[in-house]
Propionyl-CoA--succinate CoA transferase
Amino acid sequence: MYRDRIRLAALQDRIMSADEAAGLIRDGMTVGMSGFTRAGDCKAVPVALARRAATDPLQITLITGASLGHDTDKILAESNVLARRLPFQSDATLRRKINGGEVMFIDQHLGETAELLRSGQIGPVDIAVIEATAITETGGIVPTTSVGNSASFAKMAKQVIIELNLNMPSGLEGLHDIAFPVQRPYRQPIPLIAVEQRIGLPYIPIDPSRIAAIVITQRDDSPSNALPPDAETNQIAGHLNALLEREVRAGRLSPTLQPLQAGIGTIANAVLHGLADSPFHDLTMYSEVLQDSTIALIDAGKMRFASAASMTLSAPVYRRVLDNIEHYKSKLVLRPQEISNHPEVLRRLGLITINTALECDIYGNVNSTHVGGTHMMNGIGGSGDFARNAYLSVFVTKSVAKDGKISSIVPMVTHVDNSEHDVDILVTEHGLADLRGLAPRERALQVINNCTDPAYRDSLLDYYRRACLRGGQTPHVLEEAFAWHTHYRDHGTMLTPAGKPANEPLAA
Amino acid sequence: MYRDRIRLAALQDRIMSADEAAGLIRDGMTVGMSGFTRAGDCKAVPVALARRAATDPLQITLITGASLGHDTDKILAESNVLARRLPFQSDATLRRKINGGEVMFIDQHLGETAELLRSGQIGPVDIAVIEATAITETGGIVPTTSVGNSASFAKMAKQVIIELNLNMPSGLEGLHDIAFPVQRPYRQPIPLIAVEQRIGLPYIPIDPSRIAAIVITQRDDSPSNALPPDAETNQIAGHLNALLEREVRAGRLSPTLQPLQAGIGTIANAVLHGLADSPFHDLTMYSEVLQDSTIALIDAGKMRFASAASMTLSAPVYRRVLDNIEHYKSKLVLRPQEISNHPEVLRRLGLITINTALECDIYGNVNSTHVGGTHMMNGIGGSGDFARNAYLSVFVTKSVAKDGKISSIVPMVTHVDNSEHDVDILVTEHGLADLRGLAPRERALQVINNCTDPAYRDSLLDYYRRACLRGGQTPHVLEEAFAWHTHYRDHGTMLTPAGKPANEPLAA
C-alpha cells in the first residue's frame, strides 16, 4: 500500500527498518531532524537511535525545526545521545540536562538556523531525517504537518533518511510551499507580498541519490498540549480586542487588521480564539505555528487564509483537519521556517504579533526563556523574529504565576530576550499597557498601573519612585532589582510572611 | 548667488530669515529635523527657535535622523524647548536633562522611526526642517551630507522649512538615492541587491506648495569627534583581521569579504582603519554612517563602494571630500536611514557588522546605552538593526574604562540592547571570543579567557564557577550579578582597596 507513495521507482529498494536506518548515524555526527512544535517530527529513527545507544553509546548534535513530539527529546536525553541541541526544545527531561550543563543547548532565533547552516557558520549537517507524506517522481520530498527546517536539512545534508508516514493523508501534497533565499552574492528579494502567495514548489527538491534510507511509519503527531481558554485568558483577549477596535476607529487599521502571528502555547492560542467574538473579518495569519484557534477562526468564517511552518493541533481538531484536508488546503500553506520567520517578509507584511512573556519588567523588557534568570524553559523561538519586525508587537502574560507567589511583572527582568525597543503592547488579565512612543518613565507607569496584580502594584510603584530619586533614563535600584527573585528562590514566594512583596523597605 | 540653487522660480519668494521661519513652529508641535551623526543638520532655524523661546516659551517634540552638530541639542535643551526627543542624541547637556527626567527620550532602532511615522503610531510631524544643497525644477529637495529621516519628514510633514546651505558644493547633487517602502497593503520588495545600486531619485520629491520657508545658510558641518586609532584599537583591529583571514582560509568568506558596517565612534572607526593593512580587497560598505576610515580605505584603493545615511568626517577629510565631490560621488551613495538600516536589505546583503559595546557580560549580552543600567549615554542607534540581521555580528570594546576602574566585561550587563542571540564575535585589545554555535557556558569561557583584562579575569572565572554550582543554561549568582556596578557607584571603582574586583568572596 505504501509503494504508490514512493513515485520514483528507483528509491523503492532504499526501504529499511528504523534500526537499520539509525545505523547510518555515527558518533559525533550532526543530525538535522524534521519536527516543529511537535508536528511532523520523525517517529521511528530517533527511538531506534536511543535503543541502539544502550549498547553502542554515541553522541550527536541534534538540530530540528523546533520542539519534538512523542517524548523524543526525553528519550534521546535519557539515553545520553544528545551532546548538543538546537535551536529549541520544550521537554522536561532534556531541560533538566540542559540546566545541569550536561547538554549544550544553543538557543536561536528560529528564522536564523538555516542561514547559519547555509553559510557554514554552524554544521555541516551529516544526516537529515525527514518525515514525508510521499516521494515524487523526481525524488522530491512531500513533508507532512510541518516544514520547519526540513527543506534546508534535506538540501544540505550528505545523506537523507526519510520516514514515510502512512498515517498522513496523501492529500497533504499541495499544502507546502518550499522556497529558499538564493545563495550570495546577489541574493534576490523574496517575492512574497501576500500571506496566501506561493513562491516555491509543493515538495522539497533534492538529488535522490542522497536518499540513503526510507523507513515506513504509521503514527499520528503528538497532540497539542495547549490548555483551553480560561477566565483570565479571556480577559486578556478582551483587552487586546478593545485596543484593536480603537486602532480601527483611529484609522490606523482596517477591519481586516494586519496579518496575525501568535506564539505557541496556551495564552497566545486563547487570545487568538478571542478574535472569534470580535467585529474584525477576513483575517489572515502569517505565523510559525497554527494552533486550534486558527482552525476555529477559519471554521467560523473569520479568517480567510493562514500561513505557517507547522500546525500543532489538539487530537479532535487534528483529526478533523486531516480528514478534510482538501477543504482546508485552500486556506492554509506551510513554509520553511526561514520564510515564515524571515525579517524581510515580516517587515514587509507588517504583522500584529502576539507572543508570551515569562516575565516582563516595568519598562517593558521581556524575559521569554530563563526562569530566575538562569534556568532555560524552552527557548526564544520565533518571538524575536516576529517582535522585532512587527507592525504591532504585543506580549501577553498572566499577571501572576504559582497561585500569586510569583509576579510576572517585576522591577527588572533577570534575562532579556525581547528588549523595550521591541515591545509595543503588554497585556495581562488586569489590563493593557500601550507603550508606543513612550519614554521608559512613562512606560513604567502604564505597566505598573494597568498590568500588575494588586498584591504587587504598590510595591512596584514604590520601587519605581525610589528608583527615580536616583535619576536616569531607566531608573533602577540595582541592589534591589532582583530582590523578588532571590526571595522566591529562597522561600518559594516573592511575598514576605506579611503578604508584601519582598523588596518593601524595612521601615514601611 | 543662491537663486540658481532654487530652480523652481515660484519658490524664490519663500525665502525668509531663520527667525521668521522659526515663527512657524508653535508650542506643542512635532518637528522633524534633518541631521544624522552631526552631518547635514539644520544650522539656523533651531538656534532661532531657542532664541525665541527666551521670550516666548514653547515646547516641542523633536525627531531627527540621529545626533545633531553645532551644539543644537544643547542649545535647545538649555532653552527648555525639548519636551520629547527621538530617536537618538549624543549631547552632554541634553543627556543630563534626559537622565533627570526633564526631557522624555524615546530610544529607537534608527531603521524604525520612519515606519512608525508612516503608520501613524507616532507623530504626525507638523513641520519638517531640512538642510538642502538645492531645490530642483519640480521643487524636489537635494539633501546635503546626510539623508537620515529627512525624506520621510519632508514627505509626511504638513509644512516644510528648507535651510539652503551655500557652503555645500552643488556637486553633492547626484550623491543621494531617495526611495521608500511602498505603503501597505501589497508592499513590494525593496529592489536593492547590491551596495552600489540606485533604486530611487537623486532628490526628495515633494509637493512644492508645502514648502513654507527657505532660509539661506552658509556653514560647514560640525567635524567628527572620533579620536584617532591608538595602541588598543589597533590591537582590536588586528584580532578582527586575523579572524577574517581565518574565515577566508576556511572558504566561508571571499577576500572581498561581505559588505561592512561600522558604528559611529572611535573604536569602530579605528577597526575599519585597520583593514588598510589587511590582505582583503575590493571591499564594500553598507552602513548608516561613513567616517574618516571609509574615505581612507577608498583613497587607498581598498574599498570600491560605500553606502550610508550620512557622512561624518574630521575637518580635513570633510574638506577634501567636498572639494573633490565629483571624484568621490562615483564611490559613495547616501540613502534614507530606513533603507540603510532596513532588515530586508541587511539580511539579504549579509553584512559584517562592527558595533561598540558600552559593556558586555560573560555570556555575550551587550549593553550599548545605559551607564550603570540607568543613565542614558546616546541611544541604541542602528546597532540593533545591523547586529540582528548580520552575516557576522561583531562587537568591540576596550576591556577597561576609567584607567582600569571599570571592567567592560561584567558578570551580568545592567541593561540589554543586543542579546546573546545577536552577538557572534566579541573583541577587546586582549583578544577575540568567537561565540558562534556555542552554548552560554561555552561562551562564558571564551569571553572570560580571551577578552577580559587580567585584573578582572580570575574574579570573573570565580563568579562563573560559583554560578555553575547553582546550575542553569545561563548560570548566575543573582545577588552578586551587579556587585561590581554598585561598588563603582559607591566608590568610583569596581576594585576593592586591595585591588581585587568587588565581588571576591570575603574569605578569599
